[in-house]
Amino acid sequence: MSRLAVPKTYKLFIGGKFPRSESGRTYEIVTAKGAFLANASKASRKDARDAVKAARTAVAGWSGATAYNRGQVLYRIAELLEGRRAQFVDEIQRAEGVSANAAEKQVDEAIDRWVWYAGWTDKYAQVAGNANPVAGPFFNLSVPEPTGVVAMVAPQESSLLGLVSVVAPALVTGNSVVVVASEQFPLSAITLAEVLATSDVPGGVVNVLTGSPAEIAPWLASHSDVNALDLAGAQQLDWVDLQIEAADTLKRVLPPEPDVWPSLDRITAFTETKTVWHTKSMI
């Protein structure tokens, strides 16, 4: 006797939980050949606000963790990604219509990239910070600190690798993230969210919205509680207007990038430099 398949509805990931969009909207995700894959939630302005609120609440705990602890948490995510490798490969192969080898390559590169960033948690401060020469009996130290809440538009042509390439470096320094996933290929983003939910990442540190970047990005760009904006995947949007909206609240903005490569610059892009003076002991 044949059975009916159970179509899956992928939900948003906000504050460590998986709510449906408050609007009740969903949209169909199809394979490269047009066959139905699943339903995904279509995030609204209210969902974006909820995600920012969750991210703001999570900043203090995540940024206050030791660099070593953040590194261990990020390494754990890589372990869980490895455990779900077959699922990611299957999702990417069906959604993007690529070969098994191409899907495997994307997943392996995403995992390796996550590990690479995890290794920087207790090292970037030594590279990006410094001791400054000053006149007088003082120590003068410059140290990088996290910006806060970073809103992102993930690269739209990649199911997993593009998402990892923007989210991982922001987490290294203690930022929290609200990311708008690829509209066409969101399945890997929600599967990654399921990985995060079962890892040691505190709820709210990463929040994943699915749906239309054109609809959601303006609300994030203008939100007064968002500290920075990464427009890596916003090539097809009116991203100059997004920059203008972000400028009203003095956000730091990274413009669209055709390819997002791993780099120290991506880690330090969303940090602020704090300079501290301290009197030298005269003993």
UniProtKB/TrEMBL annotation:
InterPro entries membership: Ald_DH/histidinol_DH, Ald_DH_N, Aldehyde_DH_dom
Name any one GO molecular function.
oxidoreductase activity
> What residue stretches are annotated with the Aldehyde dehydrogenase domain?
29-236
Q: What are the UniProt keywords, alphabetically?
A: Oxidoreductase
Pfam families from the entry? Aldedh (PF00171)
Record's keyword annotation contains Plastid: no
| Protein name per its UniProtKB record | Aldehyde dehydrogenase family protein
- Source species, please? Paramicrobacterium agarici
